[in-house]
Amino acid sequence: xxxxxxxxxxxxxxxxxxxxxxxxxxxxxxxxxxxxxxxxxxxxxxxxxxxxxxxxxxxxxxxxxxxxxxxxxxxxxxxxxxxxxxxxxxxxxxxxxxxxxxxxxxxxxxxxxxxxxxxxxxxxxxxxxxxxxxxxxxxxxxxxxxxxxxxxxxxxxxxxxxxxxxxxxxxxxxxxxxxxxxxxxxxxxxxxxxxxxxxxxxxxxxxxxxxxxxxxxxxxxxxxxxxxxxxxxxxxxxxxxxxxxxxxxxxxxxxxxxxxxxxxxxxxxxxxxxxxxxxxxxxxxxxxxxxxxxxxxxxxxxxxxxxxxxxxxxxxxxxxxxxxxxxxxxxxxxxxxxxxxxxxxxxxxxxxxxxxxxxxxxxxxxxxxxxxxxxxxxxxxxxxxxxxxxxxxxxxxxxxxxxxxxxxxxxxxxxxxxxxxxxxxxxxxxxxxxxxxxxxxxxxxxxxxxxxxxxxxxxxxxxxxxxxxxxxxxxxxxxxxxxxxxxxxxxxxxx
Length: 495
Fold this sequence. Notes:
Layout: H1 2-23, H2 26-42, H3 47-54, H4 61-75, H5 81-91, H6 95-110, H7 114-166, H8 184-205, H9 215-236, H10 241-247, H11 249-294, H12 299-307, H13 315-327, H14 332-342, H15 346-362, H16 366-390, H17 395-416, H18 427-431, H19 434-457, H20 463-489
Helix pairs in contact: 2-3, 2-6, 2-7, 2-15, 2-16, 3-4, 4-5, 5-6, 6-7, 7-8, 7-16, 7-17, 8-19, 9-11, 11-12, 11-16, 11-19, 11-20, 12-13, 13-14, 14-15, 15-16, 17-19, 17-20, 19-20
């Protein structure tokens, strides 16, 4: 009882913490907005005018709203910029953003170097961001562990429910066992519901670098509709039930889930091949461009020089298209607008947007480009560290799939071996539901792939990579565990 209350208390604190974090989305965008304002200040633009330019940055929606409020207070209500910033600092829920504004106001009033303060504060913001990323990983690890614990608890309830619901005791036996009801709803409803709850928590806690891509989901609509229609036909059309008798319901469900997941998974992998390449190669590209700019080349020629370097992977095709457009005399802003449709990673989009702004405002001074390259490297390292530290947790759903298959198989074998005076075991009734229970297990394992996809890569679409593998693992585990039980004990036919 103490353990349960302590566990529920920890889970409650985690949910409350997630809600508090979600209340201030400015924290997530602050490093990019602060970098943009700092680089503009280094190019001779005041932070107030930097906020004006933030209103056109679609990749920072929360700071666009913040900039709108700030500009409205100045231009509509007649406040001076420092007073308006002080008002925003008092009303914001983001502690780091409050410190950023308060420090800038203090620097201006004291007559200090605003650019030096902004550079120093930007380093502090990235240090905080690195610490927050480390803490976020710890919270994600706790969330995954809590997910596994909850599944084990539900599995124990399933075992107990199955055993108690299978025993029929005559009135004169004197034995009175409680009944937990039919075990089928536990597998078909409760376990998937637990997964959905934890998927919601993961969505609140884990934020990826990609805009939510829609192509994989759209590609899954037709296979999903066809699979649902097929399963309904097999269940309610008597002339098609021979297919179920021939292949077995678990195998049919497994094949349907693989068919639903495989095309979106291929689309997702093809998209991420370019996106990951862009995120990894962008800091090197900016560094090469900075070194070329130091030699006196123009910003456009510096971009062309840096883009011609090998080693950028699939990102090279996009850079080559950019250099061709520069050669045709197309403006950098127009090139950037086209780039947004090719690259979905918002850190890459923001860095290119900042690059365009600094070139248009200050001519792309080498010192400014040096700062951009430095902090783009920091952003890349933060994301790469998160992914590498969360990668081992990808194995847990596969271990869970094997464990659940073995547990279900041995549980139903144990039911057949119950031998108490005056007790009969209606195994024939339960045996008729075993294919449906096995199909429910396969579906749940498939669903857990989206949870681990969100945790590991920050997107539910990443689950299309893992879900078909988990469904296949669950089916193979069920078949293998049944063969193992039959070889040792005989009897039991599940699939």
